[in-house]
UniProtKB/TrEMBL annotation:
PANTHER family with a match to the protein in the record: TRANSPOSASE, TRANSPOSASE RV3428C-RELATED
Domain Integrase catalytic: 123-303
InterPro entries: DNA-bd_IS481-type, Homeodomain-like_sf, Integrase_cat-core, IS481-like_transpos, RNaseH-like_sf, RNaseH_sf, WH-like_DNA-bd_sf
Region spans: Disordered: 47-73
Protein's name according to its UniProt entry: IS481 family transposase
Gene3D superfamilies: Ribonuclease H-like superfamily/Ribonuclease H, Winged helix-like DNA-binding domain superfamily/Winged helix DNA-binding domain
SUPFAM superfamilies per record: Homeodomain-like, Ribonuclease H-like
């Protein structure tokens, strides 16, 4: 339906009902603001059993339509790294037709022809062998935002950002997160010490950490902290976020299930909810990598330790 349409399917039903009730065609046309020809058209379609839906604008016959064999031939030539104009000349088709076929088949761009890199999945054998670190920046909350209210006119500019520092264990997927005022090197070091202490309290010795090449992680203070804690620092390849994919995936889960899951009036409410959600994520939420169990189930805790730590 376009914005100026006089008749919708419901309006056509009203038209048919009025004509069937014996109302004159001219009266129905005047009441609905349409022509008498339109009234007769829909009444005729209704009587013939065609229904009141719009007909397809597709022509009944397309004599110049290319065959499926020609389409397959175009795609095969494209996969041989042939240009669209070369294919058009070789197949005696117009460049527009070749371009349309390539676009519909997803082969119009050269990068679509490149083979996709193989998916390399890995998992360390024990908890603490690798901890993935990352930072997510979230705007501070002055009032419920447009995601909830739908009103983009009320904005709180200049109130700053919250920086969510996250850590997730490669083997167990047990996560730690904290909100800070910045993403400087010293703040990242403070969070790193908190992470090591938190895993240590659960009987996990951290041996390696993986980060991207962000400024806090390439700083001198972070390198010194890693040496002091006896940690091997592994950095991802530049512009390759999938190398640190477990942290990236955890951030997306946190945004969906925590940061954007409820309407928070203030940043303090959101920060308070983070602790409750982390407890749910680590202790109760089923995780595919843990065989449908909670991440904490892969720490190998005894019954007594489990009851002591589950607070």
């Amino acid at each position: 339906m376009h914005k100026n349409a006089r008749l919708t399917p419901k309006g056509r039903e009203v038209l048919v009902q009025r004509v069937a009730a014996g109302q004159r065609v001219a009266e129905v046309a005047q009441a609905l603001g349409i022509s008498e020809t339109t009234v007769r058209k829909w009444w005729r379609r209704h009587q013939s059993g065609e229904g009141l839906a719009d007909r397809s604008s597709r022509p009944k016959t397309s004599p110049r339509r290319i065959s499926s064999a020609q389409r397959s031939h175009i795609e095969a030539l494209r996969r041989q790294r042939r240009s669209g104009r070369w294919i058009a000349e070789h197949t005696q088709l117009s460049p527009a037709t070749v371009s349309r076929v390539l676009r519909r088949s997803g082969l119009s761009r050269w990068r679509d022809l490149e083979p996709q890199p193989p998916v390399h999945r890995y998992e360390y054998a024990a908890p603490g062998e690798m901890i993935h670190l990352d930072i997510k920046k979230l705007g501070r909350i002055g009032s419920p935002g447009h995601r909830v209210t739908g009103n983009r006119s009320q904005r709180h500019r200049g109130i700053g950002w919250d920086f969510v520092h996250v850590a997730i264990d490669d083997h167990s997927r047990v996560a730690v997160a904290a909100i800070a005022d910045d993403e400087r090197g010293r703040t990242a070091v403070a969070f790193l010490r908190q992470v090591v202490a938190r895993y240590s309290a659960q009987g996990v010795t951290v041996r390696r950490v993986m980060t991207d090449n962000g400024s806090p992680y390439v700083s001198r203070v972070f390198a010194e902290a890693c040496r002091a804690l006896g940690l091997k620092h592994v950095r991802t390849r530049p512009y390759t976020p999938r190398t640190n994919g477990k942290a990236e995936r955890f951030i997306q889960t946190a945004l969906r299930e925590w940061a954007y899951a409820s309407c928070f009036d203030t940043s303090a409410q959101r920060e308070q909810a983070l602790g409750h959600w982390l407890h749910h994520y680590n202790w109760h939420r089923p995780h595919t990598a843990a065989g449908g169990l909670a991440p904490v189930s892969r720490l190998g805790l005894s019954r007594n330790n489990l009851l002591k730590l589950h607070t």
